[in-house]
Design a protein that fits this description.
The complex is a heterodimer. By secondary structure, chain A is of the alpha/beta class. Helix content of chain A is 44%, strand content 10%. Chain A contains 16 helices and nine strands. Chain A has a seven-stranded parallel beta sheet with strand order 1-8-9-5-4-2-3, sandwiched between helices. In chain A, β4, α8 and β5 form a beta-alpha-beta unit. In chain A, α2 packs across α3 and α5 crosses α14. The termini of chain A are far apart. Chain B is α/β, with parallel strands linked by helices. Chain B has twelve helices and 14 strands. In chain B, the strands form three sheets. Chain B has a seven-stranded mixed beta sheet, with helices on both faces. In chain B, strands 9-11-10-13-14 form a five-stranded mixed beta sheet, with helices on both faces. Chain B is globular and about 60 Å long. Chain B starts with a strand and ends with a helix. The chains are: A alpha/beta, B alpha/beta. Chains A and B meet through α15 and α16 of A and α3, α11 and α12 of B. The complex binds thiamine diphosphate and magnesium ion. Thiamine diphosphate sits at the interface of chains A and B.
């Protein structure tokens, strides 16, 4: 039996005989915010972070922005398959990931810098978008993965959390999902499982207003995504995703509760400023006006004004932060470009622990064919740049 | 009108919606943005938001919803954005879509089409490359069609939308825009279940479909071998007769497919040839297929695909055995 508070709630009293509709209007879902868009804030509400940590938050947000910009640029030069920019979502991504501990599990949708925060390299992430299998291997070493099939990771995260629960581990399993992912069957089943078994699972939903072309208002009839959590018997927090301190505060609070077997769903209200991926044309489905409105809510700008008010801005040399990240990216790209020629054997590795005889036969025949027919080279190209 | 395969899809959808107002189109990003490949371009503008609908990100709801709507009397033509995202809806296909007619002894049916781009070679991420027609064709009650030319795309899709049974329509996205040809005007139908002989020959029969057709024809054309090339076009129901008649003539056969080898469509083709033309065979039937591995990610995906030299190798083996 769990000792969750929600389990102890008594069903409401029997009504007076009339049919009572329970509607969304009965629910009010507040949005947690610490720094107002105009830069004002209540000093009491600021989370307890050291000056150094507060500066780190800034550095990571800038890292996220620079990384997206550089990736979009190299994709345009034909040096990546595709890429999904996170511009506009930096507060959401960094504020949340800043709360995670190395022993936690992190399974992301649109969030790349958290992998760097956990020790993966930019080279790994370049490899990922170039379609090089070692990327997810590296992420796995940091208890992290990227899910491409939307929502597919949500039950996995419930299962990871289940293992943690059985182990009594001091850790949480976290699924980053998008607004679109909340509509999948996997989300329904995974979050419900977490609620039913009181698993240490944290669901961090970046509501960036769009699933490719579909606005969140058409994604669901629910007024908020946060409220969906209540139906699974788990708690929810809705937070201003452009306010890095509020996101940190929300997810930190959530993580504390999750650790004790109270799963929490956090909806972070944010916006994807760039295209869905480099192959998307957002002018087909949204107005420039709307984009401009959100440009004005730039999370990095808002946080900068906070740092200025706190007298911390003088500790930050923005240009040199950017220079360092650019250098890190240049070096990562150079390393990625040096990828050694790969062997055909790799295609057959890791399908099973042991290669079944039929697969060995297929591999040997293919290797022989490559020897016998050099004209295969006209059709087969290793694309180390994706 | 000169058109590519993806334009032919669009043309067939326009035609079907014009002719039959029970045809509705829905799926992810199909309406306002016209589909990530623009296959449903301009449908919203022409037919309105009752008949062309962007759904939530819910493959189960798309396929299950289409099935219910079809039972009710509509003709849904739904899009799964990439075939790699059909698996969540596999449950609906197996549990409901394919069984409505059977379950109700024909009282109810599910005439609907699930369209989806399939196959490797477009430099996309994981789950954007598979060719699992063999798995889908394994479901009784479901038809599976795979066009390889713009004209056939228009004709087969038109037939699929009219078909009284559910059809999975797998579009070869690697050649979505690489072939352009004159599209037959108006109401052009290519019957499901009929293969096409693309090239007549006496030396060997080569069977392929979808995105494997261009490399197969290239291998044959460049080699000068007198091969008969058959485009299967529909995987289920399979046109055994055209294949068997050809094999009886040539005595040799090669099957080319992109999907994994083991339990692939080639296995079934070979079994049928063995059943009906074993005594005509002069050599074992060869298979040139994808490997029994996951499709490699984009940097190495070329290695997975059967290319002309590999196909030619299979043909030569069939000829020399
Ligand atoms: C199951 C599944 N269906 C469709 C897709 C194609 N697709 C990729 S991203 C995306 C939209 C995702 O929206 P959301 O969950 O809001 O995440 P965001 O991209 O906005 O971060 C879609 C439909 C997919 N990857 N997986
Ligand atoms: Mg989104």
């Amino acid at each position: 039996m769990s000792d969750r508070e929600s389990d102890r709630r008594v069903p409401s009293a029997v009504g007076d005989g009339g049919v009572g509709l329970l509607t969304q209007a009965d629910l009010s879902v507040p949005t947690h915010q610490i720094v107002d868009p105009d830069g004002s804030y209540d000093p009491e509400a600021v989370p307890d972070l050291s000056a150094e940590e507060l500066c780190d938050l800034y550095r990571w947000m800038v890292t996220d922005r620079v990384f997206s910009r550089r990736m979009v640029n190299i994709q345009r030069r034909g040096e990546l398959g595709t890429f999904g920019s996170t511009r506009g979502q930096e507060a959401s991504i960094i504020g949340s990931a800043f709360t995670l501990e190395p022993q936690d599990w992190l399974y992301v949708g649109r969030a790349w810098t958290p992998m760097f925060m956990r020790g993966a390299s930019m080279t790994d992430m370049i490899h990922f978008w170039r379609g090089i299998e070692t990327a997810q291997q590296s992420f796995a070493k940091q208890n992290s993965q990227i899910a491409i099939s939307i929502g597919s990771h949500i039950p996995l995260v419930a299962g990871l959390a289940w293992g943690m629960q059985l182990d009594d581990a001091d850790a949480v399993a976290t699924a980053y999902i998008g607004d679109g992912a909340t509509s999948t069957g996997a989300a329904h089943e995974g979050i419900n499982l977490a609620g039913a078994l009181s698993l240490p699972a944290l669901f961090f939903c970046q509501n960036n207003q769009y699933a490719i072309s579909l606005n969140v208002e058409e994604q669901t009839g629910a007024k908020t995504l946060a409220q969906k959590a209540l139906a699974y018997g788990i708690d929810a927090i809705r937070v201003d995703g452009q306010d890095v301190l509020a996101v940190y505060d929300a997810v930190q609070t959530a993580r504390e509760r999750v650790k004790d077997g109270n799963p929490v769903f956090v909806e972070s209200v944010t916006y994807r400023l760039d295209a869905h991926t480099t192959s998307d044309d957002p002018t087909r489905y949204r107005d420039e006006e709307e984009v401009q409105e959100w440009e004005a809510k730039d999370p990095i700008e808002r946080y900068r004004s906070f740092l200025q008010s706190e007298g911390l801005w003088s500790r930050i040399d923005h240009d040199s932060i950017v220079d360092d990240i650019e250098t890190e990216f240049d070096e990562a790209l150079a390393t990625a470009d040096e990828l050694e020629e790969r062997r055909v054997r790799e295609l057959f590795a890791h399908v099973y622990d042991e290669l079944p005889s039929e697969l060995s036969r297929q591999l040997e025949a293919f290797e022989a064919l490559l020897e016998e027919r050099p004209e295969m080279d006209d059709y087969i190209e290793q694309r180390p740049k994706g | 009108m000169q058109a590519t395969i993806v334009q032919a899809v669009n043309e067939a959808l326009h035609g079907a919606m014009e002719r039959d107002d029970r045809v509705v189109v829905f799926g992810e990003d199909v309406a306002e943005s016209g589909g990530v490949f623009r296959a449903t371009d301009e449908l919203l503008e022409e037919f309105g938001s009752d008949r062309v609908v962007d759904t939530p990100l819910s493959e189960i709801a798309i396929v299950g919803g289409a099935t219910g709507m079809a039972m009710y009397g509509y003709r849904p033509v739904v899009e799964i954005q990439f075939s790699g995202f059909l698996p969540p809806a596999f449950d609906q296909l197996v549990t409901n879509t394919s069984r409505i007619r059977w379950r109700t002894r024909g009282e109810l049916t599910a005439p609907m089409v699930v369209r989806m781009p399939y196959g490797a070679g477009v430099r996309a991420l994981e789950h954007h490359s598979e060719s699992l027609e063999g798995a889908y064709a394994h479901i009784p009650g479901l038809k599976v069609a795979v066009p390889s030319t713009p004209a056939d795309t228009k004709g087969l899709l038109t037939a699929a939308i009219r078909d009284p049974d559910p059809v999975l329509f797998m579009e070869p996205k690697r050649i979505y825009r690489s072939i352009r040809e004159e599209l037959p005007e108006g109401d052009h139908e290519v019957p499901l279940g009929e293969a096409a002989v693309r090239r007549e020959g006496d030396a060997v029969t080569v069977v392929a479909w979808g995105a494997m057709m261009p490399p197969t024809l290239e291998a044959v054309d460049d080699s000068g071998i007198d091969a008969e090339v058959i485009d299967l076009r529909t995987i289920s129901p399979m046109d055994t007769e055209t294949v068997v008649e050809s094999v009886k003539k040539t005595g040799r056969c090669v099957v080319v497919h992109e999907g994994p080898r083991t339990l692939g469509v080639g296995s079934e083709l070979i079994a049928r040839i063995n059943d009906e033309a074993l005594m005509y065979l002069e050599a074992p039937i060869e298979r040139v297929t994808g490997f029994d591995t996951q499709v490699p990610l984009l940097s190495m995906e070329d290695f997975y695909l059967p290319h002309p030299p590999r196909i030619l190798d299979g043909i030569e083996r069939a000829l020399t055995a």
